[in-house]
Design goal:
Blueprint (H helix, E strand, L loop, with lengths): L1 E7 L6 E7 L6 E11 L3 E5 L8 E9 L2 E9 L3 H11 L2 H26 L1
Antiparallel strand pairs: 1-2, 2-3, 3-4, 4-5, 5-6
């Protein structure tokens, strides 16, 4: 998967739109708005791809020199959550750990860059 397009106005009320694609397939779009932005601490955004979209909350907390990232998704109903989980067939279970592993690698690289500066 590749990030094809990225637009983000990261402030309360700001909008975002990310498109990811693979090969010749039509890119998938993820979009919504930021409803809470506390730098270095907390982000909350809507997922508006459908009426079943979750509100995502990500918090960052310093723990012993490392950052603990906690992600929560609140769906509008149990049916909406069940529908998303049924359609993922391992996508969330496989994709989320892979995404966080890539984020870990990026942060190590950024940390090394900052130390050299």
């Amino acid at each position: 998967m590749s990030l094809v397009s990225c637009e983000a106005d990261v402030r309360v009320g700001g909008r975002y739109r990310f498109e990811i694609g693979h090969g010749d397939a039509t890119p998938a779009a993820f979009f919504g708005k930021y409803i809470e932005v506390i730098p270095n601490s907390r982000l909350v955004w809507t997922n508006e791809e459908s009426d079943q979209g979750a509100v995502t909350t990500v918090t960052f907390e310093e723990k012993g020199g490392k950052t603990l990232l906690v992600l929560h998704e609140l769906y509008p109903s149990k049916e909406a959550l069940d529908s998303v989980l049924a359609g993922m067939e391992g996508g969330m279970e496989g994709g989320m750990p892979e995404s966080f592993a890539e984020l870990d690698e990026l942060l190590v690289t950024l940390g090394a860059s900052a130390e050299r500066s």
